[in-house]
């Protein structure tokens, strides 16, 4: 029989009457439980937001992007393109010409993010799940088409089924004095809208057109591009592929993964997660301080019992373990309950989506959550550490009673 644990359980569960110390113990247990539950839920929400952003970026952006370290464009020679396509792990390579431009449709106009891509872009099938209306096509039977984001469609009141009204794209000519009254100051292209897509508000001003049309508008040469987008084969090691591609493109060009392009957002999410975790940890610490007062008052109440134990031959170590175990029972019971409730809430939210995002424009209806084993371990370690610190001093005081 574990004597310290048996005595501690008697102190906690077998009281003949509910004293102030008993209620304080229950309050401490509830405080630790609520703090633990909140910490599990909040950390899981941040994990869900991180995963959601990765899924959003994966819908529009490539696995790897090659761009110039200086300037907006560079020359992508056929030799360079062939070497990149032959690199181990490369599935598709898309040439991109991208810049801001003015879009007109009927009586409306707006500034858009023009992205010219070649035929391989649609072979990536990233936009298939994001298509709202029409079809995904850029060129068919000699006709150039544009695929517009839902934000552009709303700004210009575009109809994807109206093949008679063209979408006109205008871009200032280099070397010409800028004037909206000068018709020769702009390069112009008219395209038919073939489809509308929606991913997230970040991409709501994009217009996709054939890369040759984009080059003509932007005044680029035949092999000039803004970037090269590379899609990798499933199971390819991204770090190894990134190093291999960087060795091919040389020092003047930069190879970035999808995470590299959005590193600021991921860093912000991690910092917010850390700050919230620290804040909720203080709440658990405050709840655990009640354990300190509970044990301190229990030591005073049980002085006679402690003296009897010493008279029966108990050691200071045994008395110390009794009150350490008492603190562990209070804290770990609350922590275990909080962990279970937190996990249940997260699993229920993940399955049923009880708590909605509250915004009409959101791409999902409910807050995303994802349980991470490392977070559960971290919360458990935190509670154990706080329990040890808040229980040690009262237990030491109990051991010194004579």
UniProtKB/TrEMBL annotation:
Residue spans crossing the bilayer: 20-46, 274-300, 322-345, 376-395
Domain called ABC3 transporter permease C-terminal: residue spans: 279-400
Domain MacB-like periplasmic core as annotated: residue spans: 25-247
Chief place where the protein resides: membrane
Keyword terms, alphabetized: Cell membrane, Membrane, Transmembrane, Transmembrane helix
Domain of life: Bacteria
Subcellular localization(s) per the UniProt record: Cell membrane
InterPro entries: ABC3_permease_C, Lipoprotein-release_system, MacB_PCD
Keyword Transmembrane: yes
Topology versus the membrane: Multi-pass membrane protein
Record family assignment: Belongs to the ABC-4 integral membrane protein family. LolC/E subfamily.
Protein name: ABC transporter permease
Organism from which the protein derives: Spirosoma liriopis
């Amino acid at each position: 029989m574990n004597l310290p644990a048996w005595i501690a359980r008697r102190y906690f569960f077998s009281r003949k009457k509910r004293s102030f110390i008993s209620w304080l113990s229950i309050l401490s247990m509830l405080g630790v439980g609520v703090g633990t539950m909140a910490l599990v839920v909040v950390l899981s929400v941040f994990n869900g937001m991180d995963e959601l952003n990765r899924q959003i970026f994966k819908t529009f952006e490539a696995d790897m992007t090659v761009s110039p370290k200086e300037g907006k464009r560079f020359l992508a020679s056929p030799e360079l393109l062939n070497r990149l396509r032959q690199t181990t792990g490369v599935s598709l390579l898309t040439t991109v010409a991208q810049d801001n431009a003015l879009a007109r449709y009927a009586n409306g106009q707006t500034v858009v993010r023009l992205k010219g891509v070649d035929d391989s872009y649609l072979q990536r099938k990233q936009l298939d799940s994001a298509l709202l209306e029409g079809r995904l096509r850029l060129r068919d039977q000699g006709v150039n088409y544009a695929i517009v984001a839902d934000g552009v469609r709303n700004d210009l009141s575009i109809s994807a089924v109206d093949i008679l009204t063209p979408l006109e794209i205008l871009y200032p000519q280099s070397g010409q004095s800028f004037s909206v009254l000068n018709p020769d100051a702009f390069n112009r292209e008219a395209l038919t809208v073939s489809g509308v897509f929606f991913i997230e508000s970040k991409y709501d001003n994009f217009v996709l057109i054939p890369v040759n049309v984009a080059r003509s508008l932007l005044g680029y040469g035949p092999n000039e591009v803004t970037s090269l987008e590379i899609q990798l084969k499933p199971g390819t090691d991204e770090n190894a592929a990134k190093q291999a591609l960087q060795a091919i493109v040389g020092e003047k060009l930069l190879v970035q993964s999808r995470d590299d392009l959005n590193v600021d957002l991921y860093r912000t999410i991690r910092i917010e997660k850390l700050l919230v975790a620290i804040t909720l940890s203080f709440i658990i610490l405050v709840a655990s301080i009640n354990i300190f007062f509970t044990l301190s008052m229990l030591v005073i109440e049980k002085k006679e019992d402690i003296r009897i134990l010493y008279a029966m031959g108990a050691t200071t170590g045994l008395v110390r373990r009794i009150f350490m175990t008492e603190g562990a029972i209070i804290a770990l019971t609350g922590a275990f309950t909080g962990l279970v409730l937190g996990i249940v809430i997260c699993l229920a939210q993940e399955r049923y989506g009880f708590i909605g995002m509250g915004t009409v424009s959101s791409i999902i209806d409910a807050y995303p959550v994802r349980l991470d084993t490392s977070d559960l371990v971290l919360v458990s370690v935190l509670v154990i550490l706080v329990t040890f610190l808040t229980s040690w001093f009262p237990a030491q005081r109990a051991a010194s009673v004579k």
